């Protein structure tokens, strides 16, 4: 399950002590004085003011820094252009914290080379090597100070907001609200050692991110040890079959097993192997039948390098999410599109989970966030003109009674003021999406395509969560069948939960409203955030890494920008 971060106070204290104890005590200062000069010799004024023009000129000549020019200038302006990283002409311990964080960027799925770690060290050595009397020492101090500030923004921006901006990158669909961190304020809090700042340390903002980061370490270890061998054999292998491929399967899925390759009993696809395959199928969103078939072969033979890439891509998506997923931090609904799953979260814990049906590739469910405002019980299905032109038009050409057979009607407009219109008013051969001037809707009833309730968060995509009469689809492994909306496995449960604090709305009342003959709107006592997101890798409650197929090629689009 994907869920938010729970802070570990003890771990944070250990990290703080490691990163912030005076380096003079530990002897590990990466910016240690290499000149042999004592502190008195460094008589450069630490309250020196850096000119705005100096900042502009320096950063404009540095490709890695210049896109942070505005932010750097704002940061120095707010501190009256005083040096940020020096005290008594010596670098403060926070500089070591920054350099340590940047040095470990690879474990965050980022490249430390991007953040110029080597150059910062060399800049300090060059500064420290000059005597205080050298006229160039002050300039090197200013350059190092600005370079450290720009390096912080360079790294912190990627760490907290993502290395790719999903809102401006072409081909990446992600309109979820962002983390609104003000990096200039965050840096000032670090320099002033305000431990109560949420960004005082480079801590991940979400537990889901931390879990993927830990998984990345394991999968990179597998890669360093040569990865895994391909599992190849007969097209289908099932319980009690004997095949040589079972040996490779045991090695892959049961590595702890002591196996004698000369013993033919290890070639038998027994209950232990079947259970291991079943578990693998569950972790990869496959049809769970315990049979080694084409889909399972395909998933087994995805190279470890590809799985590593998948982990890094999804860590990046976690960086795109706001620090507080719910506005008040209490409850929200999360729809993970490639997993075909809905999670209901409250106070950091999952209290409900259900299967979902999402949009097919040509009608993909959009990735965005909003707030559920009201429910519509026994709803009309107001059919988009695109569906009228593409799907209903051919039906009506063959049978003018088709609308009535589907409990549908043609009306002047959607809503309570709608008036029925005879179907013979329309030329069903020349009709197009643009010239159709009426509306078609499906009346409430057991076969209504929206089922018995829909969960509304009005948005530009006309997407919402709803019930469905096609319950059989929830037994499918791949559930991309809709026109973009999200169909729910347990709509009554979700409706009851959302209305639990509304007087008079218990489960019995909900069921009655769902089976009424008239449409009814019910406003929620408070709006509930909903996130429609796209994660193809995550770590579940049992600590197992889950992988899913790249349903809409969003991984592919992101990889082109990130790698």
TrEMBL record:
<dbReference type="GO" id="GO:0004180">
    <property type="term" value="F:carboxypeptidase activity"/>
</dbReference>
<dbReference type="GO" id="GO:0009252">
    <property type="term" value="P:peptidoglycan biosynthetic process"/>
</dbReference>
<dbReference type="InterPro" id="IPR052905">
    <property type="entry name" value="LD-transpeptidase_YkuD-like"/>
</dbReference>
<dbReference type="InterPro" id="IPR005490">
    <property type="entry name" value="LD_TPept_cat_dom"/>
</dbReference>
<keyword id="KW-0732">Signal</keyword>
<keyword id="KW-0808">Transferase</keyword>
<feature type="signal peptide">
    <location>
        <begin position="1"/>
        <end position="32"/>
    </location>
</feature>
<dbReference type="InterPro" id="IPR036366">
    <property type="entry name" value="PGBDSf"/>
</dbReference>
<dbReference type="InterPro" id="IPR045380">
    <property type="entry name" value="LD_TPept_scaffold_dom"/>
</dbReference>
<feature type="active site" description="Proton donor/acceptor">
    <location>
        <position position="466"/>
    </location>
</feature>
<protein>
    <submittedName>
        <fullName>L,D-transpeptidase family protein</fullName>
    </submittedName>
</protein>
<dbReference type="InterPro" id="IPR036365">
    <property type="entry name" value="PGBD-like_sf"/>
</dbReference>
<dbReference type="InterPro" id="IPR002477">
    <property type="entry name" value="Peptidoglycan-bd-like"/>
</dbReference>
<dbReference type="GO" id="GO:0071555">
    <property type="term" value="P:cell wall organization"/>
</dbReference>
<comment type="pathway">
    <text>Cell wall biogenesis; peptidoglycan biosynthesis.</text>
</comment>
<comment type="similarity">
    <text>Belongs to the YkuD family.</text>
</comment>
<dbReference type="GO" id="GO:0008360">
    <property type="term" value="P:regulation of cell shape"/>
</dbReference>
<dbReference type="Pfam" id="PF20142">
    <property type="entry name" value="Scaffold"/>
</dbReference>
<keyword id="KW-0133">Cell shape</keyword>
<dbReference type="InterPro" id="IPR038063">
    <property type="entry name" value="Transpep_catalytic_dom"/>
</dbReference>
<feature type="active site" description="Nucleophile">
    <location>
        <position position="485"/>
    </location>
</feature>
<dbReference type="Pfam" id="PF01471">
    <property type="entry name" value="PG_binding_1"/>
</dbReference>
<dbReference type="GO" id="GO:0016740">
    <property type="term" value="F:transferase activity"/>
</dbReference>
<feature type="domain" description="L,D-TPase catalytic">
    <location>
        <begin position="331"/>
        <end position="514"/>
    </location>
</feature>
<keyword id="KW-0573">Peptidoglycan synthesis</keyword>
<keyword id="KW-0961">Cell wall biogenesis/degradation</keyword>
<dbReference type="Pfam" id="PF03734">
    <property type="entry name" value="YkuD"/>
</dbReference>
């Amino acid at each position: 399950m994907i869920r938010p971060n729970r802070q570990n106070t003890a771990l944070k204290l250990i990290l703080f002590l490691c990163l912030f104890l005076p380096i003079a005590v530990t002897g590990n200062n990466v910016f240690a004085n290499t000149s042999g000069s004592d502190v008195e010799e460094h008589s450069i004024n630490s309250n020196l003011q850096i000119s705005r023009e100096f900042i502009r000129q320096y950063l404009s000549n540095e490709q890695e820094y210049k896109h942070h020019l505005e932010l750097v200038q704002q940061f120095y302006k707010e501190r009256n252009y005083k040096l940020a990283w020096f005290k008594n002409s010596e670098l403060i311990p926070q500089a070591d914290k920054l350099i340590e964080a940047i040095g470990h960027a690879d474990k965050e799925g980022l490249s430390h080379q991007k953040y110029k770690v080597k150059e910062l060290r060399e800049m300090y050595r060059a500064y420290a090597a000059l005597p205080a009397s050298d006229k160039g020492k002050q300039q090197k101090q200013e350059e190092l100070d600005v370079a450290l500030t720009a390096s912080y923004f360079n790294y912190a921006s990627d760490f907290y907001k993502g290395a790719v901006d999903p809102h401006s990158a072409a081909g990446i669909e992600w309109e979820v609200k962002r983390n609104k961190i003000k990096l200039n304020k965050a840096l000032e809090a670090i320099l002033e050692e305000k431990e109560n700042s949420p960004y005082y340390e480079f801590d991940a903002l979400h537990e889901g991110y931390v879990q993927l980061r830990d998984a990345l370490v394991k999968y990179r270890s597998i890669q360093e040890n040569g990865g895994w061998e391909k599992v190849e054999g007969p097209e289908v292998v099932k319980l009690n079959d004997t095949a040589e491929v079972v040996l490779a399967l045991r090695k892959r899925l049961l590595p702890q097993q002591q196996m004698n390759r000369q013993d033919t009993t290890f070639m038998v696809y027994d209950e232990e192997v079947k259970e291991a395959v079943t578990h693998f199928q569950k972790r990869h969103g496959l049809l769970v039948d315990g049979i080694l078939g084409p889909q399972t072969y395909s998933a087994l033979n995805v190279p470890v390098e590809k799985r590593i890439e998948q982990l890094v891509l999804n860590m990046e998506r976690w960086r795109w999410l706001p620090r507080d997923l719910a506005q008040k931090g209490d409850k929200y609904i999360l729809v993970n599109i490639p997993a075909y799953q809905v999670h209901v979260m409250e106070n950091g814990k999952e209290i409900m989970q259900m299967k979902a049906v999402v949009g097919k590739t040509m009608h993909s469910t959009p990735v965005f966030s909003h707030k559920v405002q009201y429910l519509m019980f026994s709803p009309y299905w107001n059919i988009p003109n695109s569906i009228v032109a593409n799907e209903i038009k051919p039906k009506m050409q063959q049978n003018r009674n088709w609308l009535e057979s589907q409990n549908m009607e043609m009306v002047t407009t959607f809503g309570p003021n709608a008036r029925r219109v005879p179907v013979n008013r329309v030329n069903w051969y020349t009709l197009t999406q643009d010239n159709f001037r009426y509306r078609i809707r499906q009346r409430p009833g057991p076969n209504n395509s929206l089922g018995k309730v829909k969960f509304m968060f009005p948005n530009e995509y006309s997407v919402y969560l709803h019930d469905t009469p096609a319950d059989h689809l929830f037994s499918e492994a791949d559930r991309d069948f809709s026109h973009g909306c999200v169909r729910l496995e347990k709509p009554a449960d979700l409706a009851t939960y959302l209305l639990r604090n509304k007087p008079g709305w218990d489960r019995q009342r909900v069921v009655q409203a769902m089976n009424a003959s008239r449409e009814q709107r019910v406003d929620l006592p408070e709006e509930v955030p909903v996130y429609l997101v796209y994660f193809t890798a995550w770590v579940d409650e049992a600590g197992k890494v889950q992988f899913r197929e790249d349903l809409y090629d969003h991984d592919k689009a992101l990889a082109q920008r990130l790698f």
